[in-house]
Specification:
By secondary structure, the protein is an all-alpha fold. The chain has two domains: about 80 residues; about 110 residues, no CATH class. It is built from eleven helices and no strands.
């Protein structure tokens, strides 16, 4: 019962959000048809350049934890081994798959076969990660120097600036096209928003 109520609330919230977007589209289409100069002023105010370089700058600094880890290698290795042993014990002995499936079915409408496969994948992923963590903990406790080669290969710096470079390019072609064909754009936006709003109002009663 609670799952159905939650689904209904979420669906109504989604439809309401889309309805607000459709109303905004109606207003924008009407403004483009009747007073396109207003939309030009709004476009000039809204088109402000935001540099992603400043936002991404904190991600460009490297944080070196290797020195601290190697100074406390036995402590970290022991804690990691304890966590890995506990996870392996829990997933192989204490984990009750039937009870987990029963609890999930009470709180969500998920097909049994899908949930069964997801739980099996979760257990397999957890066991694989725990075994890998146990192996790493052994190296940390007894031979931490053997991890240095792996660490040097894994510690490759990736520039966030290169990944965000496409976002730094100005793209004003859409605004120019809309204002060049302002009547056509206004009619299309108004008609599409009106159609979407009508469909949403019809479905609102059935949710």
């Amino acid at each position: 019962m609670s799952a159905l109520f939650t689904d209904a609330v979420l669906m109504r919230s989604l439809i309401l959000f889309l309805m607000l977007g459709s109303i905004a589209g109606l207003i924008a289409g009407a403004v483009l048809l009747l007073r396109p100069d207003w939309m030009m002023r709004v476009s000039k105010l809204a088109n402000r350049w935001v540099s992603t370089r400043q936002m991404a700058r904190p991600f460009s600094y490297s944080i070196n934890l290797e020195g601290w880890c190697y100074r406390h290698n036995r402590l970290i290795g022991t804690l990691l081994m304890s966590a890995a042993v506990y996870i392996i014990y829990y997933l192989t002995t204490a984990f009750d798959k039937a009870a987990a499936l029963k609890n999930v079915f009470y709180s969500a409408s998920i097909p049994p076969l899908l949930m069964d496969g997801l739980l099996d994948g979760f257990v397999l992923f957890g066991l694989t990660g725990a075994v890998f963590a146990a192996m790493v903990s052994l190296f940390l406790v007894f031979r931490p120097s053997m991890l240095r080669d792996f660490e040097q290969r894994a510690n490759k710096r990736t520039s966030v600036r290169q990944a965000l470079k496409p976002l730094e390019s100005l793209r004003g072609g859409m605004d120019q096209y809309v204002f060049k064909h302002v009547r056509l754009a206004g009619m299309l936006i108004f008609a599409g928003s009106f159609y979407t709003l009508a469909i949403l109002l019809i479905n609102w009663k059935s949710v």
